[in-house]
Design goal:
The complex is a heterodimer of chains A (about 110) and B (about 110). By secondary structure, chain A is mainly β. Helix content of chain A is about 0%, strand content about 60%. In chain A, a hairpin with a 5-residue loop joins strand 9 and strand 10.
């Protein structure tokens, strides 16, 4: 059974204070690892897909990296508008279904 | 622009009533999913469909049903609403392969009193 664990559950940062969110996974054949952003009262919004260890993707202040056991979402010089819950999910080689982690709630104070 | 819409956005119902939540997508995606999201549990899969007339149970399917009569719609029915079904419900869709991830609706907040 695929498992995804995200840490920390919550993270408070000051504006400009860089940090990383962790997504650890066990999966039977990784086909893809996905990062989503979820704002309060809204559905998750797609950020990145990573397909193989060593791959990196960037979008504005966010950079996602992937190893064989975990993924990191690095946030450089965050702003208050980066405050949201960040979800990680994996897709295995057996089907078309994502397994989600519990999310990290990020709060960035000005 | 293609989209996925859920209705209603908010619903209050009484215990024991039948409730149907609507999900409509114009992406022409084969796959559609229903999740519930609760504090401490994250997103949990209720039911899913890989195409017209195909439906499958997820990890928390008891008390819920779905039917897929066309590509665009996957309504979720609570046969007899219970207080434990108070939650936020999200519908999602994806193309035939999961490699492109999911597109989510904005959610329905359901309260069972």
């Amino acid at each position: 059974e695929d498992q995804v664990t995200q840490s920390p559950e919550a993270l408070r940062l000051q504006e400009g204070e860089s940090s990383s969110l962790n997504c650890s996974y066990t999966v039977s054949g990784l086909r893809g690892l996905f990062w989503y952003r979820q704002d309060p009262g809204k559905g998750p919004e797609f950020l990145f897909t990573l397909y193989s260890a060593g791959e990196e993707k960037e979008k504005e202040r966010l950079k996602a990296t992937l190893t064989k056991k975990e993924s990191f979402l690095h946030i450089t010089a965050p702003k208050p508008e980066d405050s949201a819950t960040y979800l990680c999910a994996v897709l295995n080689n057996a089907g078309n279904m994502l397994t989600f982690g519990g999310g990290t709630r990020l709060m960035v104070k000005p | 622009d293609a989209e996925i819409t859920q209705s209603p956005r908010h619903k209050i119902t009484e215990t024991g009533r039948q409730v149907t939540l609507a999900c409509h997508q114009t992406w022409n995606h084969n796959n559609m999913f229903w999740y519930r999201q609760d504090l401490g549990h994250g997103l949990r899969l209720i039911h899913y469909s890989y195409g017209v007339h195909d439906t499958n149970k997820g990890e928390v399917s008891d008390g819920y049903s779905v039917s897929r009569s066309n590509t665009e719609d996957l309504p979720l029915t609570l046969e007899s609403a219970a207080s434990s079904q108070t939650s936020v419900y999200f519908c999602a869709s994806s193309p035939g392969t999961g490699l492109y991830g999911y597109t989510f609706g904005s959610g329905t907040r359901l309260t069972v009193v």
